[in-house]
Amino acid sequence: MKSFNITNEDLANNPAPRCTCVLVLDTSSSMEGQPINELNEGLKMFWNDVRKDEVASNSVELGIVTFGGCAKMVHEIENIMAYEPPVLTASGMTPMGSALEIAISDVKKRKKEYKNHGVSYYQPWIVLMTDGQPNDNWEGAANAVKQLDSQRKCLFFGVGVGDGVDMDTLKYICPESRPPKRMSEVDFREFFQWLSASLKQVSMSSPDQQLLLPSTVGWEVVEV
């Protein structure tokens, strides 16, 4: 698969509307072992699937923020063809709030670049995945992302993994119209298949067009 650098020159030369997604991924010590290995495998599968789609490979831009020990931008938002998926490792505590702040900042920065270059775009997605609970002051970042979602400036998705996840925190962060989902297992492949199918569907639509996303049946736990 050909790889190339994507710079602001690409924003001038590639007319495709941009479909942006920032993954905010828990890489704390509780993810060590099989969970982090499965997460890396899911990321690779997602990358390969989107790259094989001619429309999505031009439109989908991805950013990755991790929070394990510290929150950091592993890769700023860029076309998915521009770089290979990172290999993530697990360690440390769970500074979820700091990770959300980084994601929000990068989304705002990228949207400004789209506007400066006259590039149309779909409202960015921020997808948070965690298997635990935050250990930092997360409420401010949670309120900020809720406000952006309510103003239709981003779409926020929260996904809890396993039985130890603090779903109450995710319910607080997520908009009422889009409550958090929960996975019972650490096999992330079906989730990333859903994410890939969703972003491919978005990239084939018109910006601001309302869509019915693929079903989450297959990876979501249904509470009864």
Short synopsis of the structure:
This protein is an alpha/beta fold and 224 residues long.
Structural write-up:
- The chain has 224 residues and is an alpha/beta fold.
- It has one domain (27-203): von Willebrand factor, type A domain (Rossmann fold, 3-Layer(aba) Sandwich), CATH 3.40.50.
- Helix content is 38%, strand content 19%.
- The protein has seven helices and six strands, in the order H-E-H-H-E-E-H-E-H-E-H-E-H.
- It has a six-stranded mixed sheet with strand order 3-2-1-4-5-6, with helices on both faces.
- The protein is globular.
- The N and C termini lie far apart (44 Å).
- The model is unreliable at 1-6 (pLDDT under 50).
| Domains, number | 1
Radius of gyration (CA) equals: 16 Å
Tell me the CATH superfamily: von Willebrand factor, type A domain
| CATH-defined topology | Rossmann fold
CATH hierarchy class name: Alpha Beta
Note the run of SSEs as H and E. HEHHEEHEHEHEH
Order of neighbouring strands in the sheet with most strands: 3-2-1-4-5-6
- Beta fraction of the residues? 15-25%
* Intertermini distance: 44 Å
Number of helices: 7
The parts where pLDDT drops under 50 for at least 5 residues are: 1-6
Content-based structural category = alpha/beta
Query: Which of globular, elongated, flat, extended, rod-shaped describes the shape?
Result: globular
Range of helix content: 25-40%
In the CATH classification, which architecture applies? 3-Layer(aba) Sandwich
Assembly state of the chains shown: single chain
User: What composes the largest sheet?
Assistant: 6 strands, mixed
Average of per-residue pLDDT values: 88
State the total count of DSSP E strands. 6
